[in-house]
Amino acid sequence: MSPDGSLGSPLDIREQDGILEVILNRPKANAIDAATSRQMGEVFSHFRDDPSLRVAIISGAGPKFFSAGWDLQAAAEGEAIDSDYGVGGFAGLSELKLYKPVIAAVNGLAVGGGFELALACDLIVAVDEAQFFLPEIFVGLIADSASLRLPKRLPYHIAMEMLLTGRRMGAEEALRWGLVNAVVPQVELMDKAREMAQQIIQGAPLAVASVKELVSHSQHLSLEEGYALLRSQKLGFYEAMLASEDAKEGPKAFAEKRSPRWQAK
Question: Is position 129 annotated as part of the catalytic site?
Answer without folding.
Answer: no
